[in-house]
Write a structure and sequence with these properties.
By secondary structure, the protein is α/β, with parallel strands linked by helices. The protein is 46% helix and 15% strand. It is built from twelve helices and eleven strands. The strands form two sheets. Strands 1, 2, 5, 6, 7, 8, 9, 10 and 11 form a nine-stranded mixed sheet that branches. A two-stranded antiparallel ribbon has the order 3-4. Strand 1, helix 3 and strand 2 form a beta-alpha-beta unit. The protein starts with a helix and ends in a 9-residue tail after the last strand.
């Protein structure tokens, strides 16, 4: 999807540079640099508070889970990347994982779920964690609608907020993330679970995340359930291709711009899980932590002859940049996990699955039913097999296979 959208952007670049007028949109009030810097500092502080609150809840949740056991509980964290229509793979994988014949491997009740872009649309359903919720989101990806995205008339005019609109996608999200689902998300939040959704703050050029499980609980009190849906749309809003989403005083776009997978460990951070646990339970053994990372893409770009023309060069180059950044993010988590295991005696695993490099779409184009069915079927098959996961980090005492 992103490759096609990039081409639209590039095709539009020349006429946009030549045109100075177009369909007008309401401009946002321009804020001074001082005001924006102050807001950035406030946002950074609030983000740390949200993160610390999530960690505190998770520590209490793990303690409750292990209260009646002789050994520490296992913490399961699921992270799902962006990938446009390839999110169909993750949707199918969740279903297959829940139907595995190996009960010890079957999809766990996640303590935290994170999502970016298409992964953000998957995340609430994985967060609820029921077979029915996972099958619901799989059906969403298996049966794409033609009106999910639509091109604007004279899309290249410079005053448009985007080249495309999302009438069908917004309708589908409104229908799926209804009052019943929001109440279910709030109920899971009350159990100490966390659902983190990341987007990009365009004003500051930084990553911004929300604890959507807590936002769901708050929305039941305020009545503003549309905010929950806005956050999901913000994470998936490809810059210039889809309209930015205004939340509060900021304009947000695709979380994949700043980090295509939202992962946190930070073993030395005072507010991190390890140090919070040790302050609250000195001398108690740390629980086992398992990071499950679903990459809704291939780890390597399919080879294809690129002609020396600027349009053909730019699209795969930008796709490669996103893919490389995604892998780098997971490798950074892996390095932190290996460091924590060696320096702090933790038991942290990082397991990764991605669309196999040999897979090819059955038909060209984006959001094609044949392609998305192929990916959901593939996801189901691989999800049911424990061997589908690559172990990128594990304590040495457990061996490379975990």
């Amino acid at each position: 999807m992103k490759a096609t959208c990039i081409k639209i952007l590039l095709i539009a670049a020349i006429p946009c540079a030549l045109l100075s007028t177009g369909c007008s949109t309401q401009n946002r009030p321009v804020q001074t640099e001082h005001t924006l810097l102050s807001r950035c500092a406030e946002n950074e502080k609030s983000q740390r508070e949200v993160f610390f609150g999530v960690v505190e809840r998770m520590v209490d949740r793990v303690t409750a889970k292990s209260a009646d056991k002789k050994e520490p509980a296992t913490v399961d964290l699921l992270a799902m990347s962006g990938g446009g229509d390839k999110g169909a793979f993750g949707a199918g994988f969740l279903v297959g994982w829940g139907e595995s014949s190996d009960e010890s491997y079957r999809r766990p009740d996640f303590d935290a779920v994170t999502g970016v872009s298409t992964g953000a649309l998957l995340a609430p359903f994985a967060f609820l964690g029921t077979d029915s919720s996972c099958k619901l989101v799989e059906a969403f990806y298996r049966h794409p609608k033609k009106d999910w995205v639509k091109s604007r008339f004279l899309f290249f005019l410079p005053n448009h907020p985007s080249f495309m609109t999302l009438p069908g996608l917004e309708r589908e999200i409104d229908a799926a993330v209804d009052d019943t689902m929001i109440r279910a998300m709030a109920a899971e939040s009350a159990k100490g679970k966390a659902l983190l959704i990341a987007a990009t703050d365009l004003d500051s050029g930084t990553q911004h995340f929300w604890d959507l499980s807590d936002e769901a609980a708050k929305s039941l009190k305020t009545g503003d359930q549309d905010r929950v849906r806005k956050i999901l749309l913000a994470s998936a809003a490809i810059p210039a291709v889809f309209p930015p989403v205004i939340i509060g005083d900021s304009a947000y776009a695709d979380g994949g711009v700043t980090a295509n997978v939202f992962l946190r460990l930070d073993p030395d951070m005072p507010e991190g899980f390890i140090n919070v646990w040790r302050r609250k339970y000195p001398g108690s053994p740390l629980p086992k932590v398992r990071y499950w990372v679903i990459i809704n893409n291939q780890l390597h770009q399919p080879p294809k002859t690129v002609q020396p023309k600027w349009l053909e060069v730019m699209a795969p180059s930008l796709d490669s940049a996103v893919r490389s950044a995604t892998v780098a993010e997971v490798r950074w988590l892996t390095a932190q996990a290996n460091y924590a295991n060696a320096a702090h005696g933790t038991n942290i695993e990082v397991r990764v699955v991605a669309i196999p490099d040999e897979w090819r779409p059955p038909v060209p184009g984006q959001f094609k039913k044949e392609t998305m069915e192929s990916l959901t079927d593939l996801g189901r098959k691989l999800g049911a097999e424990k061997s589908s996961w690559q172990v990128w980090a594990a304590p040495k005492k457990n061996g490379a296979g975990g």
